TrEMBL record:
Chain ranges of the RNase H type-1 domain: 9-95
Protein name listed in UniProt: RNase H type-1 domain-containing protein
Organism: Hibiscus sabdariffa (roselle)
InterPro entries in alphabetical order: RNase_H-like_dom_plant, RNase_H-like_EbsB-rel, RNaseH-like_sf, RNaseH_domain, RNaseH_sf
Signal peptide: none
Amino acid sequence: MVACIISHSDVNDAFVAEAKACESAVLFAIELGFKFVQVEGDSLTVIRKLSSDSLDKSIIQPIIIDIKAKLQLFEKITFSHVGRQGNAAAHALAKIHTQFQLPRYWVKEAPQEVEQVTIADLR
């Protein structure tokens, strides 16, 4: 498990925020050298746009194009929609993000609040 918190304070649109979060996850996976990645998100719109071969014409088009341009760097990458109840770890991270002024990354561990909800999700 890896986790990160990156503040996007200049974002005023929920779809842009979700797309930027996905972009950050993809960049993080690239930096770590991962070749097999599953990105989960609770924005069905973003997941559909990333899984589609059609040209996106929405406000998040530049982000979607940027993410898709990086897909060849992976042997396999999938984008899956999970409902909010299945994305508790991401919401736990979002709640604690104000504690950190700079981006924060965790590998093989996460903040205690996040590990607790992740373990609860596995049960």
